[in-house]
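Lab notes, practical 5.
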Amino acid sequence: MEGSLFESLVRNSMTLITDIDKSESMVVHEGDMFANAETSEEPTFKLDLNDKDVIYDELEDLMGYARLKLVKMMYLDANSFGDEGVALLAKTRALKKLHTLSLADNKLTDAAVAALAESPHLTCLRVLYLHHNNIGTAAMEALGHSDTLSGLTTLYLKATSLGPEGAAALAASPKLRGLKELYLDRTSIGNEGVQALCESEVLDTVEKLTLPHNGLTDSAIDMLAETEHLPNLVTLDLYKNRFTEGYAQKLKKAPKLTSFKFLQVD
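Output from the prediction step:
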């Protein structure tokens, strides 16, 4: 990869993540920031290779890139490496401190999620984007029983093939106990899937839950209002479902939703 056009693309796609408050009066030299980042033991860069038509051979080069260990957030949406590429990524030791991974719109199947779930290196992963892929029940079973992925706080599954069975598999997870944001838009989970989730400890820590375009009816509202597993829910998105007009407003007065503030509905 050294000296190649792809290396140039990768280098130009890496940006430094900084928490510096621009309102502070202190002057920070950009060169010093990058020099410190390069020698830091903690990853401090974001790598954005979305929609770059990255193929398997190029991903293989990337996984051997010396600076990969400096990457904290990696975005690989809409590329061409498939399940095989994800399996390679999952075996890459240099990603042992990766915090955020986005693999949206890569034509992935359940096998890709299984590879992530079995990875010995991705134990620091906290944010996982898998939207717009062909993943379903088997993927949720693998993810839900994974020690590696048990620390996830954000899981984005929009426009996947979960269905009620996939939602039930996710709900049955004995490992996911720290989720704060769960995105299930356009997953066809229906009322049956909502019921499974409402009976699950997976929701105990969730603060944001999105369920647009799932064919839900008023009974889903009742389940959400009555569950014991959403004490931390702050934001709920129910856009484009099949509720009786005004019925979802009962959620605002549900006594068990003690943290609830924001409702999005038609």
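Observations recorded by the TA: The first strand starts at residue 14 and ends at 16. The two ends are 50 Å apart (CA to CA).
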